[in-house]
Specification:
Oligomer: single chain
Number of domains: 1
Largest sheet: 8 strands, parallel, barrel
Number of strands: 9
Mean pLDDT: 94
Bound molecules: (3S,4R)-3-hydroxy-2-oxopiperidin-4-yl beta-D-xylopyranoside
CATH superfamily: Glycosidases
Number of helices: 15
CATH architecture: Alpha-Beta Barrel
Helix content: 40-55%
Low-confidence stretches: none
Structural class: alpha/beta
Strand content: 5-15%
Length: 367
C-alpha cells in the first residue's frame, strides 16, 4: 500500500474507534430516574375528592391530580342539594364536569352519594307527605341519578353516615340539632336495604358501598356497622363494600385502625378508605405552628395507615385509598371546623409534604 493511502486508512480507523467510544459513552450516561408517584407505586387505586372548580381553574390542582391519582370522588357536586335542587328538577352539570374529566383521563370515578342526612335542599327538609310519597321521593332521586351516571361511575356511596356515634343505633330524631336522619324517620329502618336495591336496579354494573366514619373508635358504632353490612350481604342485598372515611387526627390510637381493618376485612366486602385526612390541630389551638415535629408525626401516621391497610386487608378487598382533597389549601377542615389545620399530603402551594412521602412509603413505594 502506498504511504498516503495507508495514512488515510489509519485516520479512518481512528475516527471509527472514536465514534464507537463516543456512542458507548452516551449509552452509559444514565437517564434521570423517574420521580415516584402515588398511582405508580400503589397496588390499589389512589384517589382524591375533587371540586369541578379546582380542576377547571387551577393548573397546579389539575396537574397534581393527573400525575398522582387514578380515582376521583366528587367533593360535593353529586350530593342531593346540588343534583335535585327542586323536586324532580335534576342538575348534573357540576358532577358531569368531574365525570367527563375522569373519563377523558382514565380515572376511576367513585360516586358520592345518594342518601345522607346532610346536604339536603330545603324542599326535602320541608317535605310533607305520607310514607308512600316519601318512598317515591327517595326512590326517584336514587334511580334518576344512578341512571344518569350508569356506565360512567364505577361505584357509589349509596348511604352515608346512617349510624349514630354514641350507641350505634340508626340516626333517627335529632340528638344534637341536625344530626338525625329524615330518611330513617319517614322510611323506617329498612330504608338502607331499599336504597341499595334501587341503585342496583338502575345501574346493575356499579359497585355499591355503605360509607361512614368512626370505625377506628371500635365500640358500638363499629359493631353495628358490621352487623348492618353483614345483614345486608346475607339477605342478598347488592352491597359490595364499606367506606371508612377516616377523618382522623394526629393523636389517634393506631391499634383502633388495625382492629377496624381486620374486622371490616372479615366481612368479605371490599374496604375503601374513602375520605382520609389527618388533622394536626384537633384541639383548635389558634396559635398553633405546623412544626417539623408535627409534620413528621403526621407523615408517620400516613405511612402507618397505608402500610397496615396493604398488609391487613386482602388484595381482592382493597378498593383503594382516597384522601378528602389532596392539598391543604382545599381541605374542608379549616372551613368546617373554623380552625388552622394542615391535614393533607400536599401543602397550600401543591408541594409534597412529609405526609406525602409517608403515604408513598406506606403504599410500598420508594422516594
Ligand atoms: C364535606 C365537603 O368537603 C364540604 O365542602 C362540605 O361543606 C361539607 O361536606 N363526610 C362526608 C363528606 O361524607 O361528604 C363531607 O364533605 C366531609 C365529611
Amino acid at each position: 500500500m502506498q504511504l498516503p493511502l495507508r495514512r488515510f486508512f489509519i485516520i479512518c480507523l481512528l475516527l471509527i474507534v472514536l465514534a464507537i467510544a463516543n456512542s458507548c459513552k452516551k449509552k452509559s450516561n444514565p437517564a434521570p430516574a423517574p420521580v415516584a408517584t402515588l398511582k405508580g407505586n400503589a397496588p390499589f387505586y389512589m384517589g382524591s375528592a375533587v371540586t369541578s372548580n379546582g380542576i377547571q381553574s387551577n393548573y397546579f390542582y389539575q396537574g397534581t391530580l393527573l400525575t398522582e391519582y387514578n380515582s376521583l370522588t366528587a367533593d360535593y357536586e353529586m350530593k342531593f342539594d346540588i343534583t335535585e335542587p327542586q323536586p324532580g328538577t335534576f342538575n348534573y352539570a357540576p358532577g358531569d364536569y368531574i365525570v367527563n374529566f375522569a373519563a377523558q383521563h382514565h380515572f376511576r370515578m367513585h360516586g358520592h352519594n345518594f342518601i345522607w342526612h346532610q346536604a339536603l335542599p330545603d324542599w326535602v327538609l320541608n317535605f310533607s307527605g305520607d310514607s308512600l310519597a316519601w318512598e317515591n321521593l327517595f326512590k326517584t332521586h336514587i334511580e334518576t341519578e344512578a341512571a344518569h351516571y350508569k356506565g360512567k361511575v364505577a361505584s357509589w356511596d349509596v348511604v352515608n353516615e346512617a349510624i349514630r356515634d354514641d350507641d350505634g343505633s340508626l340516626r333517627n330524631k335529632d340528638v344534637n340539632p341536625g344530626d338525625g336522619s329524615i330518611w330513617r324517620r319517614h322510611l323506617g329502618p329498612d330504608y338502607i336495604a331499599r336504597a341499595f336495591q334501587y341503585a342496583h336496579e338502575a345501574d346493575p354494573g356499579a359497585l355499591l358501598f355503605y360509607n361512614d366514619y368512626g370505625q377506628e373508635w371500635g365500640g358500638a358504632k363499629l359493631d353495628s356497622m358490621i352487623a348492618l353490612v353483614t345483614g345486608l350481604k346475607n339477605r342478598g342485598i347488592p352491597i359490595s363494600g364499606i367506606g371508612m372515611q377516616m377523618h382522623i387526627d394526629i393523636n389517634i390510637d393506631t391499634a383502633g385502625i388495625t382492629r377496624a381493618f381486620k374486622r371490616l376485612a372479615a366481612t368479605g366486602l371490599k374496604v375503601h378508605i374513602s375520605e382520609l385526612d389527618i388533622s394536626v390541630n384537633p384541639g383548635n389551638d389558634p396559635n398553633i405552628v405546623f412544626t417539623s415535629v408535627l409534620q413528621l408525626k403526621q407523615a408517620a401516621l400516613y405511612q402507618f395507615i397505608a402500610e397496615t391497610y396493604r398488609k391487613t386487608v386482602p388484595v381482592a378487598q382493597q378498593y383503594g385509598i382516597t384522601t378528602w382533597e389532596f392539598c391543604d389549601a382545599d381541605s374542608w377542615i379549616p372551613v368546617f371546623f373554623k380552625r388552622k389545620d394542615w391535614p393533607l399530603p400536599f401543602d397550600a402551594h401543591y408541594q409534597k409534604k412529609p405526609a406525602y412521602f409517608g403515604l408513598l412509603k406506606g403504599i410500598g413505594g420508594k422516594e
